[in-house]
Design a protein that fits this description.
The structure is a homodimer of 156-residue chains. By secondary structure, chain A is of the alpha+beta class. Chain A folds into 2 domains: 89 residues, Winged helix-like DNA-binding domain superfamily/Winged helix DNA-binding domain (Arc Repressor Mutant, subunit A, Orthogonal Bundle); 58 residues, Dna Ligase, domain 1. Chain A has 6 helices and 6 strands. About 3% of the residues of chain A have low confidence. Chains A and B meet through helix 5 and strand 6 of A and helix 5 and strand 6 of B. Strand 6 of chain A pairs antiparallel with strand 6 of chain B, so a sheet runs across the interface. The structure holds a DNA duplex (25 and 25 nucleotides).
DNA sequence: CTTGTTGCAAACTGTTTGCATATTG
DNA sequence: CAATATGCAAACAGTTTGCAACAAG
């Protein structure tokens, strides 16, 4: 944990930016969470905990953490940009359950390798990639089977 | 092309929705394009061509096309929801160049298969998946090499 | 003490919605 | 003619920004 603080400080120093209390609080909150989050959730968490940091600062800090290589954007769920920390966590891909919203993380060396191969073939230099599979998790499949028929998709 | 019209009509009829001139115009425009697009671009195209369809109708029609299985959302670039048509085009994945914005489409049977395997392992029933690789295309790599140093990432 | 940062509120952007009117099946 | 669609403008949600006061290096 102290390591990420050092990395962030270093990132900031190198470009003449400042390590402020607000930024530190955001950083620590991010790394105390162990799942995906978005700016608003983070803000709410801090707010409840009486750390009154403005939304603006949260929105301004997250991109810095991305550039510092500490967090990354993930699948967009319903319009909000969501993030997860990446440091010491390594790359992985996601399955997102349409039924309950659950996120399953996985990693496949084979897929990683194939991707690199394909990039090479196209002369493409990959920087980041993201694989997301939407579908239904085990539990939600059961729930669905219990209903006689799937409703028509007439909901909004 | 007439085939997609039939599919859409069928989709609409089955759920008591109407095949209106506006919907037809949007549908035809979508299928006359051969690249990714977003709601605003579509609206602008139609507007220039004197087909005055309201933004609201465009926004209301696109989700119908998605549900009809004719188009699909793609990578989100800069905040807008972007789509591509899928009919007769088949599934494929994307490389997105950070330098010039170019989109390279590719498809790997091996990756598709591995994904299915992984889903099976997790008891996950996939509905849709999306693999996006961000990086630099051949041309942009050359451009970058020509500069002595990469600029610090201090831009917004 | 200079430069970057904060918080606030206002501005923006993409998208959705309520409603009166018009159109489809 | 009943039910759905349209266009408009207003409403929304998430995010960004201008600015005056403030704080880090």
């Amino acid at each position: 944990m102290e390591k990420v603080v050092l990395i962030f400080k270093d990132y900031l120093r190198k470009r003449g930016l400042k390590f402020t209390p607000e930024r530190e609080v955001v950083l620590r909150e991010v790394f105390s969470l162990h799942k995906h989050f978005d700016a608003e959730q983070l803000y709410q968490n801090l707010y409840k905990r009486k750390k009154k940091i403005s939304r603006a600062s949260v929105y301004r800090t997250l991109p810095l953490l991305v550039r510092a290589g500490l967090i990354t954007e993930t699948l967009r769920c319903q319009g909000r940009t969501s993030y997860e920390h990446i440091f010491g966590h390594g790359h992985h891909d996601h399955m997102l359950c349409i039924g309950c919203g659950k996120v399953i993380e996985f990693r496949s060396e084979k897929i990683e390798k194939l991707q690199k191969e394909i990039c090479r073939k196209y002369g493409f230099k990959p920087v980041e990639h993201r694989l997301g599979i939407k579908g239904y998790c085990r539990e939600c499949q059961k729930k669905i089977k219990m209903k006689k028929k799937l409703p028509l998709d007439r909901e909004k």
